[in-house]
Amino acid sequence: xxxxxxxxxxxxxxxxxxxxxxxxxxxxxxxxxxxxxxxxxxxxxxxxxxxxxxxxxxxxxxxxxxxxxxxxxxxxxxxxxxxxxxxxxxxxxxxxxxxxxxxxxxxxxxxxxxxxxxxxxxxxxxxxxxxxxxxxxxxxxxxxxxxxxxxxxxxxxxxxxxxxxxxxxxxxxxxxxxxxxxxxxxxxxxxxxxxxxxxxxxxxxxxxxxxxxxxxxxxxxxxxxxxxxxxxxxxxxxxxxxxxxxxxxxxxxxxxxxxxxxxxxxxxxxxxxx
Length: 274
What we know:
By secondary structure, the protein is of the alpha/beta class. It contains 11 helices and 8 strands. Helix 3 packs across helix 5 (98-107) and helix 3 runs parallel beside helix 11.
């Protein structure tokens, strides 16, 4: 990677270096994706906070490891009211796997996000999912494909790309490629510190027709209300759900009396190439 990434935390740099070297797949896939905006709208219509519950066995920022049956965890999260699921497929640092995502997506009927460090187009072909995470900070650098190339390549395969940003510059790049879904990560990948104010500062710059997801740092009812008041259409929550009874934790965070985001994207949004 180039010098612009020198400010990454050592753990993140190791993850990124491994991602650059990871092989992709030679067989191009086609995805019939379940609509994430429709899932968000359905959750709100049912009186639930739209939550993307994350199945995360471990991570560099958490202690220990959880080895429950991932399919059972997924079913419990959906039973607790999750509008969608996020499944880690990064194997070395997060304990994820392609096989785990395949099993989970077959077992549930909600949209499933593939959460990984995808930096080459061929890596998109590793597994079918409804959404795929594209982290703006890791793209357009030496050794990686550009955000624009990966965004269009994801659309061409039928994925709904969720472009993750942390800074104003990254947000502008996401908007420049026409991102219909944007995740604002409250975690600074340079210091691994979480600040919910990150979402509050960037959200007003996001057009109302973009589906907006708050990522990282949401653990309490107060956090949920804070992010919803700031304009989050949905919340991606991992540790606060995985730590303990996942169904009870999911239900607790989806049944909070929180305000509507007031910016939910049109559920008829089509994800097409530019």
